[in-house]
Design a protein that fits this description.
Helices cover 48% and strands 16% of the residues. It has one domain: 3-Layer(aba) Sandwich (Rossmann fold), CATH 3.40.50.720. By secondary structure, it is an alpha/beta fold. The radius of gyration is 17 Å and the shape is globular. Helix 1 crosses helix 8, helix 3 packs parallel to helix 4 and helix 4 packs parallel to helix 5. It has a seven-stranded parallel β-sheet, sandwiched between helices. It is built from ten helices and seven strands. The structure holds NADP nicotinamide-adenine-dinucleotide phosphate.
Length: 253
């Protein structure tokens, strides 16, 4: 069965990706919905049509979670058209104030789990398949006060670009999606409330529904990177041409 696998499908952008694929990709016959909160995934499965959904309530950072994912691949043998590596989180504060476990978990989820899931899913991907890795504008330059998060997203964008070249021969595209702030659960989890960061208070917001829809369009066109909003496209350009020692000064969150 032609399948779309979405990590972090229980909320925010991941949920919007599932709904956008349902609306725009009629060839998809089956959805794998992955996140820890089963109730949210089951509610989404109802919306998408329960019979077409495989709900996998796992922690993709844990060994057991990854084992369950690998066992499911072996049992079901999906024909994967879309792999949406979307699960991720960040923390805003000076590095010294963030508990080391929170930093370690960001690296394990945003980089480690994304890498392992991609590697394990790859043998099941069909020609013409699309991998969409959710990165961030934080990947364009190091962000003081989000030092670990921005480093994990730099990994995601770099990994996506390298893998894209490798997989061209297999007819599989890899797109890195680099949104700016979106009003999702990401912000409270990152401890970003009004007043905690001047930068976050002033930056324009993107709508997750629109980001998902346009990301699918960029992916279908076999693009490498999608940055929503002109403002952030300009930032990406500036971050590329100016010395990093300068950009890092105004990239402080
Ligand atoms: N919102 C923003 O401002 C923003 C900006 C740029 C990039 N991004 C990126 O966009 C992506 C989606 O974030 P979002 O904004 O939609 O935030 P969100 O609503 O908090 O979504 C994060 C998703 O990841 C899942 N998740 C977290 N830890 C997990 C784990 N250990 N195992 C499995 N699933 C896990 C969460 O589900 P459970 O809690 O149910 O596990 C949730 O579905 C992330 O990669 C984020 O870095 C967000």
């Amino acid at each position: 069965m032609i399948t779309a696998i979405i990590t972090g499908a229980s909320s925010g952008l991941g949920r919007e990706f599932a709904l956008a694929i349902k609306k725009r990709c009629p060839d998809v016959e089956s959805f794998w919905l992955i996140a820890r909160r089963a109730d949210r995934l089951n509610a989404l499965a109802e919306e998408l049509g329960k019979d077409n959904c495989y709900v996998l309530p796992i922690d993709i950072v844990s060994e057991e979670g990854i084992k369950e994912f690998i066992d499911s691949l072996k049992d079901i043998v999906p024909e994967i058209k879309y792999l949406i590596n979307n699960a991720g989180f960040g923390k805003l504060d000076d590095f010294k104030n963030i508990p080391s476990k929170a930093s370690y978990d960001q690296i394990n989820l945003n980089c480690g789990a994304l890498t392992v899931i991609t590697r394990e899913a790859l043998p099941y991907m069909i020609k013409g398949g699309e991998i969409i890795n959710v990165s961030s504008i934080a990947s364009f330059a190091p962000n003081p006060r989000m030092a670990v998060y921005s480093s994990t997203k730099a990994f995601v964008t770099s990994f996506s670009r390298a893998l894209r070249e490798e997989l061209k021969a297999d007819g599989i595209n890899v797109l890195a999606v680099c949104p700016g702030p979106m009003d999702t659960e990401f912000l409270p989890i990152a401890n970003i409330a009004k007043g905690t960061s001047k930068m976050f208070d002033t930056l324009p917001r993107s709508k997750p529904k629109r980001v998902a829809k346009k990301a699918l369009k960029y992916s279908a066109r076999k693009k490498a990177v999608y940055t929503p909003k002109l403002f952030f496209k300009f930032y990406r350009f500036i971050a590329k041409i100016l010395p990093v020692s300068l950009v890092v000064k105004f990239a402080k969150t």
